[in-house]
Amino acid sequence: MFLAEREPGLIEEMDKEDCDLQKLHNTYRQFRYINRLISKWRQLYKNEIRPILAKQTSTTLLDIGSGGGDITCSIENWAQKDGYNLKITAADPDDRAFHYCRENHTDRDIEWVKSTSTELLANGSKFDIVISNHLLHHLTDDEIQNLLSECEQLTTQKVVFNDIERNAIGYFFFNVLSRLFFRNSFITKDGLTSIRRSFRKSELEKIIPDNWVVRRSFPFRLILIHEK
């Protein structure tokens, strides 16, 4: 059956070192729209992040694999509007993403770092909250288990991962609708590849530790959470 099994060996265009830089930058810019439609970070902020902010005078947050930085910037906006003191670090090992954010988000009070979770942990970094968007489907089972272990050590309170759940209906609608709105970028092609690489809930539950919880969110989302 179509999408019956995950295809982790596929490679997205934007992950290729020789990909078109203009299309890559357009993809970063267009992420803000696609994430507003399907990623539901506003809801995750209200339910998972803001309750922690309300209990503390100052809170630190790490965004792992921050890409073009649109989600990081949105969370900063929401926290500021709510009157909270949130210090954000956005980490991505991709040199192109790092420089894009440094050059295009100069008005932000966000620390952009070119780094992996492994490097941050080795440096002794700690954060109250650790988040990531659309990272899990890029990884093998072993890499995910290693990442979750590192995040448990990096956080003092909570980890929130947000990703796609592989679904044929979602694949069909994304294939049709994304072509209408997103041009001259990798949004459609890489989005379809991402769906094919992504997990189903039962698959992800088999590889995570017992102290992590997976839940579904509409439309076709998996939310992975660890709390101290």
List the helices and strands and how they pair.
Blueprint: H1 21-38, H2 41-53, E1 59-64, H3 70-81, E2 86-91, H4 95-104, E3 110-113, H5 117-122, E4 127-133, H6 141-154, E5 155-164, H7 168-181, H8 187-197, H9 201-207, E6 212-217, E7 221-227
Parallel strand pairs: 1-2, 1-4, 2-3, 4-5
Antiparallel strand pairs: 5-7, 6-7
Helix pairs in contact: 2-3, 7-8
3D architecture notes:
It is built from 9 helices and 7 strands. It has helices spanning 21-38, 41-53, 70-81, 95-104, 117-122, 141-154, 168-181, 187-197, 201-207; strands at residues 59-64, 86-91, 110-113, 127-133, 155-164, 212-217, 221-227. The protein is globular, with a radius of gyration of 17 Å. Helix 2 (41-53) packs across helix 3 and helix 7 packs antiparallel against helix 8. The protein has a domain at 39-166 and 201-227: Vaccinia Virus protein VP39 (Rossmann fold, 3-Layer(aba) Sandwich). The chain has 228 residues and is α/β, with parallel strands linked by helices. The protein is 46% helix and 20% strand. A 7-stranded mixed β-sheet has the order 3-2-1-4-5-7-6, sandwiched between helices.
List keywords for this structure.
seven-stranded mixed beta sheet; 228 residues; Rossmann fold
Question: What is the percentage of strand-forming residues?
Answer: 15-25%
**How do the strands line up in the largest sheet?**
3-2-1-4-5-7-6
* CATH class (first level) name of the domain at 39-166 and 201-227: Alpha Beta
Number of strands: 7
Model regions low in confidence, pLDDT < 50 over at least 5 residues: none
Q: CATH homologous superfamily name of the domain at 39-166 and 201-227?
A: Vaccinia Virus protein VP39
Roughly what is the average pLDDT, rounded to an integer? 97
Distance between the termini: 39 Å
What composes the largest sheet?
7 strands, mixed
- Please name the CATH architecture of the domain at 39-166 and 201-227: 3-Layer(aba) Sandwich
Structural class, by secondary structure, is: alpha/beta
Order of helices and strands: HHEHEHEHEHEHHHEE
Specify the number of helices. Answer: 9
Shape: globular
CATH domain fold name of the domain at 39-166 and 201-227 = Rossmann fold
Q: Roughly how much helix do the residues carry, as a percent range?
A: 40-55%
Radius of gyration: 17 Å
